[in-house]
């Protein structure tokens, strides 16, 4: 009886296996609340959260978007969670982009979160957009931002934007956060702005970048790091818990669902591999016994 069940499980039609694996991925992505797998934030994600928690209402943060569609699954959940955290604390958010695609990523993230928190453009946040030049842009922001940015992403003169009053260079900001997928990104922000001007900085980056950036984290030149999709899920967990405690309705973020989908799909695949090996062993042994 048990043998026959195991053999049937180990010889399932591959289309049924594909369907089960597909559901294991799809359900956590569409309904992450149905599979609330525990997310335990690691020390570096906790440091990022704690540093932003130290900011006071009305403080100013420069948030830089350095990623595009190819790395959106890893970094976009971080940007959403970061904006939720900042807007919940009434921090003034100044957005820039070192990558051309950063304009699209920042616009999408700001539209989603600002409407949810009732934030007004030009008063609570501003998007300065992309400027070409890589590290030269960072140097320009560090020395004279107004010479580099004469208008925002909409073409409005920065002199007509209330938030820009008194903003001169990197020293006008209380914190710097880089959402980085490569060059130019977090490394260049450390080298040309945060370190020489002694501006506190944190970062969120792709998993492949972690080994390059972690030395700056260990030296406290960067305060914590959100490392890839796991880091995004950990930060989402921290922000979600904070908002829930403050009575703000918040749903689990996309990275949390992606990590659940990944974990469950891996478990399902391993189970089918085990069943397949058991079936092979049983049928092979049965064949030998008949001989």
Which secondary structure elements does this structure contain, and how are they paired or packed?
Layout: H1 2-10, H2 14-30, H3 43-54, E1 60-66, H4 72-88, E2 92-97, H5 102-117, E3 125-130, H6 135-143, H7 145-148, E4 175-180, H8 186-197, E5 201-205, H9 210-218, E6 225-227, H10 228-245, H11 254-290
Helix pairs in contact: 1-11, 2-11, 3-10, 4-5, 4-10, 6-8, 10-11
Notes on the protein architecture:
The structure is a single chain. The chain has 291 residues and is α/β, with parallel strands linked by helices. It folds into two domains: 2-31 and 265-290; 43-252, Rossmann fold, CATH 3.40.50. The chain is built from eleven helices and six strands. The protein has a six-stranded parallel beta sheet with strand order 3-2-1-4-5-6, sandwiched between helices. Helix 4 packs parallel to helix 5 and helix 4 (72-88) packs parallel to helix 10 (228-245). The longest helix is centred in the last third of the chain and has 37 residues, at 254-290. The model has no long low-confidence stretch (mean pLDDT 89).
């Amino acid at each position: 009886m048990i043998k026959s069940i195991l053999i049937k499980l180990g010889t399932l039609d591959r289309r049924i296996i594909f369907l089960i694996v597909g559901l294991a991925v799809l359900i956590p992505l569409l309904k992450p609340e149905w599979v609330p797998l525990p997310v335990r934030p690691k020390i570096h994600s906790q440091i990022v959260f704690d540093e932003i928690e130290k900011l006071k209402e009305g403080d100013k943060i420069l948030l830089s978007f350095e990623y595009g569609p190819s790395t959106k699954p890893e970094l976009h959940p971080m940007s959403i969670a970061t904006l939720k955290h900042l807007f919940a604390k009434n921090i003034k958010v100044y957005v820039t982009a070192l990558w051309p695609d950063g304009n699209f990523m920042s616009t999408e993230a700001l539209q989603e979160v600002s409407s949810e928190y009732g934030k007004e453009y030009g008063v609570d946040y501003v998007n300065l957009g992309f400027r070409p030049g890589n590290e030269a842009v960072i140097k320009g922001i560090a020395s004279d931002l107004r010479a580099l940015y004469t208008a925002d992403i909409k073409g409005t003169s920065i002199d007509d934007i209330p938030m820009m009053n008194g903003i001169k260079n990197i020293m006008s900001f209380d914190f710097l956060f880089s959402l980085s997928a490569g060059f130019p990104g977090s490394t260049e922000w450390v080298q040309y702005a945060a370190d020489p001007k002694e501006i506190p900085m944190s970062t969120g980056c792709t998993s492949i970048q972690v080994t390059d950036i972690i030395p700056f984290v260990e030296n406290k030149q960067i305060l914590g790091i959100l490392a890839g999709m796991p880091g995004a899920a950990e930060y989402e967990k921290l922000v979600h818990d904070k908002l829930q405690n403050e009575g703000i309705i918040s749903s689990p973020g996309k990275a949390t669902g992606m990590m659940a989908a990944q974990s469950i799909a891996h478990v399902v695949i391993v189970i089918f591999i085990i069943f397949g090996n058991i079936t092979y062993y049983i049928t092979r042994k049965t064949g030998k016994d008949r001989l």
